[in-house]
Amino acid sequence: MYDSLKNENRRVLVIDDNDQIHRDFQKILATDRLEPRLLGDEALLFGGPAISPATRRTFDVDTATQGEIGLKLVQEAVMQNRPYAVAFVDMRMPPGWDGVTTIEHLWQADPDLQVVICTAFSDHKWSDIVDRLGEGDQLLIVKKPFDVAEVSQAALALSSKWNMTQVARQNVARLESQVRNRTREIQSAHEETINCLSAASMYRD
């Protein structure tokens, strides 16, 4: 189990058949300094000065050009106990799986993965996507072309959610273990008391 009590997971996977999209995500998420054009966009979107490099959150970004390749990366990450927190998945990636099919496979490999669907247009209505993937809180959708702030905030919010979920799960497991241990101690003490009383009764007799 990934220990979120000790390590914050900032691993992001981008699955898109466009290499330029990969480069854009690297520039937005994997570096603490954005290009002047992106910094300007960020300042405009936030309605104030750009976020300073000192306060930017950076991520470890891996990329895949097809859903099948992305699935292998997710499977390997789970086996190595280095899971991804967030995956950005393109909707159309010919000739392979589309985004919905890719996400179905990703969640089979890693049910905790937070996912963002990236699309300029789609073969699927949102209702169709919900029918296949469910209307849960692990799925967002962003439109191309991307806003810098939109991508940054999606990565930050979903990775934070992933980490908080893991911390809560680990805390519950720890409390359950403490309860089990305490229950065994009480049972052991109770049995010892019964044995002592039984021995004392036999001695009196």
Describe this structure in words.
This protein is an alpha/beta fold. The chain has a single domain (11-169), classed as 3-Layer(aba) Sandwich (Rossmann fold), CATH 3.40.50.2300. The protein is built from six helices and five strands. It has helices at residues 19-29, 36-46, 67-79, 99-109, 126-133, 148-204; strands at residues 11-15, 60-64, 86-90, 114-119, 139-143. The protein has a five-stranded parallel sheet with strand order 2-1-3-4-5, with helices on both faces. The longest helix has 57 residues, at 148-204. The radius of gyration is 25 Å and the shape is elongated. The model is unreliable at 42-55 (pLDDT under 50).
Query: Rg from C-alpha positions?
Result: 25 Å
| Helical amount | 40-55%
What is the residue-mean pLDDT, rounded to a whole number?
A: 82
In whole angstroms, the N-to-C terminal distance is 56 Å
Binned strand content: 5-15%
Query: What assembly state would you assign to the polypeptide chains in this entry?
Result: single chain
Number of strand segments: 5
Identify the strand order in the major beta sheet. Answer: 2-1-3-4-5
Count of folded domains: 1
Shape: elongated
Which structural class do you get from the secondary structure elements?
alpha/beta
> What is the H/E string?
EHHEHEHEHEH
- Total of helices: 6
Unreliably modeled segments: 42-55
CATH architecture: 3-Layer(aba) Sandwich
CATH superfamily: Response regulator
CATH class: Alpha Beta
Q: Any idea of the CATH topology? A: Rossmann fold
Largest sheet: 5 strands, parallel
